[in-house]
Amino acid sequence: MKAYILPDLKSSPALREVNIPSPSESEVILKLSASAINHRDIWITQGLYPGIRVGAVMGSDGCGTLDGVEYIINPGLSWGSQEAFQGPDFRVLGVPDDGTFAEYIAIDRKYIYPKPSHLTSYEAAALPLAGVTAYRALMKKAGLQPGEKVLISGIGGGVALFALQFALALGCEVYVTSGSEEKISKAISLGAKAGYSYLDPDWPKKLLKDAGGVDVIIDGACGIGFNQLVKTCNPGARISFYGGTAGKIDGLNPQFIFWKQISILGSTMGSPSDFEQMMQLVTDHYIRPVVDEVIPFGGLLTGLAKLSGGKHFGKIVIDHAS
User: CB–CB of 36/126 below 8 Å?
Assistant: First the structure.
């Protein structure tokens, strides 16, 4: 079968002919119809991810068929016994385990879920990793309640867009930030109340004037911009962050945090329970993942370059049939 493997450390994925995997007793073989690209794939090629295995098939997100039924794969493997945090054996599908950038995958049957009928194969492939990350950050960690005011930073990425969609499904009032006015406009068209350019140093004042403050913030960047987020918090607000692409949080004023009783919460991926509940939310509210572009299987490197450049709005999906 054809598959994209990691041929060496700090190298781009290479398309190779490899053997179709042989399943263990607990595994099934899915014929993959679509997969999706994540920033994780970029970090792996840069050697910035733990547990890298040279020669492994890359890719975490995927949708495939078994006996004529389409399934979505949960890429969070071996979460562990504690719901509050992942155990030492937790890992994400696709390096070191063989992943979804291939024609077939062997996967334990406990990690596959029937595709919601309202989703296309492309939308289904876009859902797993970003969807469960957004769900846990928003619902489990921040404890979002219907009708609350939510701020989502860096709108346009997969996790941020799912957080927007999930919050809207609960009847929340959602605000967004981005460095792109085009992305802000697209978010408003999806239902966001308003958006602000984080390149404008006065954007928190504008949000406070419009919204009077927010109750929940979802962030994937941290860095110096985190201090701007804090300025928009209502008393008792919860800030849940799932990444740190902008680096360390410097200069945070502790008095502001404790006086307003703000909670700052770290979140990573999600448990099997989180994944099941996320799938139920998507099904109940007919949520459709935002797909930026569908590219042919041979175009993976082009898709990685687009994701790295930050020009996307939604998930970049790979069509395994083209």
Answer: yes
At 211-248, the pLDDT tens digits run 999 999 999 999 999 999 999 999 999 999 999 999 99
Domain with CATH 3.90.180.10 in the chain: 2-127+289-319
Report the alpha-carbon distance of residue 60 to residue 44 in Å, rounded: 12
Region 181-188 average pLDDT? 98
Q: How far apart are CA 241 and CA 262, in angstroms?
A: 13
Q: Tens of pLDDT along 255-290?
A: 989 999 999 999 999 999 999 999 999 999 999 999
Q: Does domain 132-266 have CATH number 3.40.309.10?
A: no
Q: Are strands 14-17 and 2-5 parallel, antiparallel or unpaired?
A: antiparallel
**pTM score, whole prediction:** 0.97
Q: Minimal CA–CA distance to 40: which of 55, 56, 59?
A: 59
Could you tell me the sign of the dihedral formed by the alpha carbons of 147, 153, 159, 164, in that order? Answer: positive
The percentage of residues in the chain with a pLDDT greater than 90, rounded to a whole number, is 97
pLDDT above 90 (res 50): no
The pairing of strands 112-114 and 69-73 is antiparallel
Helix or strand (DSSP H, E) at 17: strand 14-17
Q: What is the DSSP string of 277-321?
A: HHHHHHHHTT----EEEEEEGGGHHHHHHHHHHT--SSEEEEETT
Task: Classify each residue of 238-265 as buried b or exposed e, where b means 16 or more C-beta atoms within 10 Å of its C-beta.
Answer: bbbbbbeebeebeeeeeeebeeeebebb
Fold topology of 2-127+289-319 = Quinone Oxidoreductase; Chain A, domain 1 (3.90.180)
ω before 96 within 30° of 0 (cis)?
yes
